[in-house]
Amino acid sequence: MDRNPSPPASDDEDDPVDDAIGDTAYSKHWLVRTLTKLIQPLSNQHENAEGADESSQPDLDEDIENEICKVWDMSMDQDVAAFLQEFKAADILLEVIVKSRCPRLTEICVGILGNIACFPETCQSISRNDDLGINHLAYTGYHKGRFVLVRLLLTCLSQPDVCPCWIERIKNQKTVCENICFIMSSSTCVDLLVKVGEVVDKMFDLDEDLKQLLIPWVLLHVCLRQSTFNLSSPLERKHESPDGLEVYMHILQLLTTVDEGIQAIVVSAEIGENTWSLLCNIVCNDLCQPDDPPIVILEQKILLASILSVLSAMFACQSQHAYSKMDRNLKLIGSLFRVLQYLRECQKRETNEQSKTDGVQEEQMTILQETCCEFLSNILTELPKETTLELIQEGYLSEESCNTAFQSLLPLYSSAGNYFIESSFHYI
User: Fold this and answer.
1) N or C: less crowded end of the chain, CB within 10 Å?
2) DSSP character for 4?
3) Confidence band (pLDDT; 50, 70, 90) for 227?
4) Residue 63: what are its φ and ψ, rounded to 5°?
5) Helix or strand or coil: residue 20?
6) Cα 397–chain centre separation
7) CB-hemisphere CA count at 13 Å for 309?
8) Conformational region of residue 420, where left means phi above 0, alpha means psi within -120 to 50, and beta covers everything else
9) Buried b vs exposed e over 203-241: b needs ≥16 C-beta within 10 Å?
């Protein structure tokens, strides 16, 4: 089933008044009866196990599936979640997760746990359960099962009171990094890739040691495998999942904020070139194009800032590599000028229309401008005059874009701006 049915109200006229769960119309007795039915598929599985292929995946009875899907929907209610915890439903669900060979049943049970974990009190309660270890939950079900599992992990990591214990569990379970990176490097499910990316992003923000632990895994299995770069799911289908692309580029940006991360990227010419080529392709061919209206920069500002930050860090570390040489990156240099030009035009538009951007958007635009200026200033100080001429001849630079860039570089990067003006004065 792709969609869960609507939650049931108590339809038993003989149910006592206090049968209702909290302020809801849901029946305690119905819920308890349904939870006990979770064990039935395990019993059937055991009875049919003799002589059966151990790798076979039994089907879930449709009637049972319908009823436990109702529980899944009901568990989004805080009163229901509290009752489930009081009934120790987590123990039942965990037993099913560990023992079941039915992917759909496992998916539903993990999904219910994920809903319960959305509420701080119930999340604290289930997180204290040592049996709710990631090693038990790291089953290798189909992508829908993996999705709800990752959602559960992200939910718990997002709760300040319980995230420390989950961080410790992740550190103590080597298979967690392996499973996360396996999904990131092999899955073709965009939704799953996005959710896993959010988990890694969250872990990087929460714990510096965990970032150090994950660096070799993420770099080896994900960001640096150009031949099997399955981030191409959100990358190549960015219109389908722009948020996913932002998440993964932010992860790569975070990796470059520590020495181990940036060195792991640039230490090998092959690895560095693969990463550089991928990011340049996104910037030069997909973002902030010449035929785009300047306002497009408002939609792409976060993504552009992350990608340009990585490219800038790589350029500063290993500018001697062939892939970062000026004559091979004319289009990229032109894109940097265009980004600054579009930013300036958006700022002028706001001034003329006397409109005011919100604080968050203004900060994001400032970050993009500062990132772009820093990268461009490093390039301009090493830009040969003949390359400047080639940029103009190829149509990557114009008088307007050069003037805009020069104004943006002042006053922080005035030396780079002055050097460029001097070298390009006779050509523009």
Assistant:
1) N
2) P
3) very low
4) -65, -45
5) strand
6) 35
7) 22
8) alpha
9) bbebbeebbebbbebbbebbbbbeeebbbebbbeebeeb
Residue 225 pLDDT > 60, yes or no? no
For the segment 93-97, the average pLDDT, to the nearest whole number, is: 85
**Rounded Cα gap, residues 226 and 315, in angstroms:** 19
| 401's tokens | 């874009």
What would the two tokens of residue 73 be?
A: 């929907």
Evaluate whether 41 touches 61 at the Cβ level (below 8 Å): yes
Residue 232, pLDDT score: 46
Q: How much is the pLDDT for 318?
A: 66
Say how many Å lie between the first and final Cα of the chain, rounded: 63
Residue with the larger pLDDT of the pair 337 and 385 = 337
What gap in Å lies between CA 245 and CA 265, rounded to an integer?
19
CA 15, 18, 24, 30 torsion-angle sign: negative
pTM: 0.75
324 with 279: CB under 8 angstroms? Answer: no
Domain ranges of the chain: 1-46+60-127
Cα 25 to Cα 13, 82, 117, distances in angstroms? 12, 15, 22
Give the residue-averaged pLDDT of 77-84. Answer: 93
Least-confidence region, from 104-118, 135-149, 174-188, 401-415 = 135-149
Distance between CA 290 and CA 95 in Å, rounded? Answer: 57
Write out the DSSP string of 80-123: HHHHHHHTTHHHHHHHHHHH---HHHHHHHHHHHHHHTTSHHHH
**Predicted local distance difference test score (pLDDT) of residue 283:** 93
The tokens for 66 are 């319908």
Alpha-carbon distance of 332 to 183, in angstroms, equals 31
pLDDT by residue (tens digit) across 252-262?
A: 888 888 888 88
HEC string for 303-331? HHHHHHHHHHHHHHHCCCCHHHCHHHCHH
Helix (H, G, I), strand (E, B) or coil at 45: helix
Query: What confidence category does residue 427 fall into, taking pLDDT thresholds of 50, 70 and 90?
Result: low
Mean pLDDT within 144-169: 90
Please list the alpha-helical segments (H only) found in 100-231.
Answer: 103-116, 120-127, 134-137, 143-157, 163-172, 174-186, 190-206, 208-218
Q: In the predicted model, what is the mean pLDDT of the chain?
A: 80
